[in-house]
Design goal:
The chain contains 7 helices and no strands. With about 120 residues, it is mainly α. α2 packs antiparallel against α3, α3 packs antiparallel against α4 and α5 packs antiparallel against α6.
Length: about 120
């Protein structure tokens, strides 16, 4: 299973690669995601969210972020919470966003939750 840092390194490669290599990196992420790696699912969500490859698709990104978050990926939980906070995802309420931030921060109390809220 990949760590979130490994996913971020791979996303950087996808972002900077030519079109053929982007497809290869994306396919590797898809294979890992299909084998149950939630961090790879998070990586795919980032690809769709930021338009690294194949193209920007916010609905697919939301679906994949939710899948990764349900699997326990804290980075996906934080990205979902940020989208809810900014109003990019309207189906979920403010309380759902706070819950995701709390889980994504590892439930480490209000101080950490508040510091994350300041970053938004």
């Amino acid at each position: 299973m990949m760590t979130v840092n490994e996913v971020h390194a791979e996303l950087e490669q996808i972002r900077n690669a030519d079109l053929l290599k982007k497809g290869l990196y994306f396919t590797k992420l898809e294979e890992r995601a299909n084998n149950g790696d939630n961090n790879a699912v998070y990586g795919l969500a980032c690809c769709y969210d930021f338009g690294y490859y194949p193209r920007r698709d916010s609905r697919m990104a939301e679906k994949l972020y939710r899948q990764a978050a349900e699997g326990g990926c804290s980075a996906a939980m934080l990205n979902l919470a940020t989208s809810i906070y900014r109003g990019e995802i309207r189906r979920s309420g403010y309380d759902a966003g706070i819950l995701l931030v709390s889980k994504g921060c590892g439930g480490r109390g209000r101080r950490r939750l508040f510091r994350y809220g300041e970053m938004l």
